[in-house]
């Protein structure tokens, strides 16, 4: 092929400003959890519509702490989507509870009140609902249903920084939400995560849980002019973020609105270019919100004559690094011992969808090149 390119599926938006911020943190001598983390927590919480932010080492540890916060353990069932990165289900097992897989909506990839209700039992104690790929779930409907059922609702907002629901940031009104800053996310600190809550007492306990159960943080001890004798109030964890990561996160947070705007423009470009190809259905905003398009996936329908894996292979041969659609945890060997209720939509999406490149270096010409290949394969 004369026109073979190299188009990666993602590239994190990191530049000289992030490099300088990280270097400043190193030069300051304060590289562990410290003042930059505290500032990042406050500014991120404000950006996503929450009262309190507690920075942690990953979204996986954020989910774990959210479940610990609710006192979940052996004998409890937690409803989760199988259609999610495996960490969502794994966090339930970390506390000894049982993940119960529910199906999802075909258009959004998200849990609905109906799919949750179909697998709810007297042993159900909580729900983890995911804003899948940045597409917000119906926050009003799911929060009300969880309240009516007396269940805790943990929001897995790993991909949702910059997404909105009902005109507000996706985290607004969430009792507890977990966020990711992995390099594939719109906002990255390399690794890292955040728990956001609206209850100050919960935030205090989360800060204790992430730092070995200490009643005073290491940063506060070092800042004190007098000796501080800490106490360890409960068995806890080392889930801290570093000031180096937070320094990068603060720069990224300043870029968030621009990054989301660019991603939404690119998503609109794909949607327009794909409109005349029968059998390819691109992800779109739900009626009640807007996606940050952390992932842009396309579902293959029957009129399209090429299977998903063949499409991925041909794209790769021509320099386009696409990916399979969102995984289904219940089909992985780690969950071979689980016999879930039928999950036809989950299995359909994970079998017949692919994720196309979408990041700040994708050009309109790149998009035309990618869609032309998809059109040939149709």
From TrEMBL:
Key words of the record: Pyridoxal phosphate
List GO molecular-function terms, semicolon-separated.
pyridoxal phosphate binding; transaminase activity
Recorded hits in InterPro entries, A to Z, give: DegT/StrS_aminotransferase, PyrdxlP-dep_Trfase, PyrdxlP-dep_Trfase_major, PyrdxlP-dep_Trfase_small
Q: Give the active-site positions.
A: 185
Q: Where are the transmembrane segments?
A: none
Modified residue annotations for N6-(pyridoxal phosphate)lysine = 185
Cofactor(s) required for function per UniProt: pyridoxal 5'-phosphate
Q: Which residues form a coiled coil?
A: none
Biological process GO annotation list?
polysaccharide biosynthetic process
Q: Which family does it belong to?
A: Belongs to the DegT/DnrJ/EryC1 family.
UniProt-recorded name of the protein: Perosamine synthetase
Q: What organism is recorded for this protein?
A: Actinoplanes regularis
């Amino acid at each position: 092929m004369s026109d073979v390119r190299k188009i990666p599926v993602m590239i994190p938006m990191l530049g000289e400003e992030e490099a300088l911020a990280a270097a400043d943190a190193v030069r300051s001598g304060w590289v562990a959890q410290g003042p930059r983390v505290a500032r990042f927590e406050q500014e991120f919480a404000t950006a996503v519509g929450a009262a309190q932010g507690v920075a942690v080492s990953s979204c996986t540890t954020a989910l774990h702490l959210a479940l610990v916060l609710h006192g979940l353990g052996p004998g409890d069932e937690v409803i989760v989507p199988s259609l999610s990165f495996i960490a969502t289900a794994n966090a339930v097992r970390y506390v000894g509870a049982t993940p119960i897989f529910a199906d999802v909506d075909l258009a959004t990839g998200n849990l609905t009140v109906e799919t949750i209700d179909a697998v709810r039992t007297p042993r159900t104690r909580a729900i983890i609902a995911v804003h899948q790929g940045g597409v917000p779930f119906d926050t009003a409907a799911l929060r009300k249903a969880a309240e009516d059922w007396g269940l805790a609702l943990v929001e897995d907002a790993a991909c949702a920084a910059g997404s909105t629901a009902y005109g507000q940031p996706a985290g607004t009104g969430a009792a507890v939400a977990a966020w990711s800053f992995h390099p594939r996310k719109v906002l990255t600190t390399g690794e890292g995560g955040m728990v956001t809550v609206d209850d100050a007492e919960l935030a205090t306990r989360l800060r204790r849980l992430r730092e070995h159960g200490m009643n005073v943080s290491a940063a506060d001890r070092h800042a004190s002019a007098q000796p501080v004798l800490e106490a360890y109030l409960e068995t806890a964890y080392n889930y801290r973020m570093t000031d180096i990561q937070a320094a990068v996160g603060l720069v990224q947070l300043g870029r968030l609105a621009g990054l989301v705007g660019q991603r939404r423009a690119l998503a609109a470009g794909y949607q327009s270019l794909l409109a005349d190809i029968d059998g390819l259905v691109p992800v779109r905003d739900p009626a009640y919100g807007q996606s940050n398009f952390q992932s842009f996936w396309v579902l293959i329908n029957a009129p399209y004559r090429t299977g998903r894996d063949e499409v991925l292979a041909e794209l790769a041969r021509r320099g386009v690094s696409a990916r399979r659609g969102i995984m289904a945890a219940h089909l992985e060997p780690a969950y071979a011992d689980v016999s879930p209720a039928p999950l036809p939509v989950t299995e359909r999406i994970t079998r017949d969808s692919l994720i196309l490149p979408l990041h700040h270096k994708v050009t309109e010409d790149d998009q035309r090149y990618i869609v032309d290949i998809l059109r040939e394969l149709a």
